[in-house]
Amino acid sequence: MAANLAEGTKAPHFELPSDGGGRVNLADFKGKKLVLYFYPKATTPTCTREAMEFSRLKGAFARADTAVVGV
User: Fold this and answer.
1) Rounded CA separation 41/38 (Å)
2) Is 37 a catalytic residue?
3) Where are the beta strands (DSSP E) in the chain?
4) Which residues of 17-50 are buried (b: 16+ CB within 10 A; e: fewer)?
5) What pLDDT is recorded for position 62?
6) How far is CA 6 from CA 3, 10, 11, in A?
7) What's the predicted TM-score (pTM) here?
8) Which residue out of 24, 26, 47, 51 is catalytically annotated?
């Protein structure tokens, strides 16, 4: 059963395939700030808008030394 995590809760370990090939896991971001967001289904209007907003704010996240990962 999946657990819901409250905002600010530490994420459990994960390892997933990366869209650029290879794998990405939580340990890759150890000691760094990370925004981990989830969308329900690829190529839907909601996930597209959400991903576009994160892309639009990429510079602001970089200035805040924060990585963004969408799942």
Assistant:
1) 9
2) no
3) 15-17, 23-25, 33-37, 66-70
4) eeeeeeebebeeeeeeeeeeeeeeeeeeeebeee
5) 95
6) 10, 9, 10
7) 0.73
8) 47
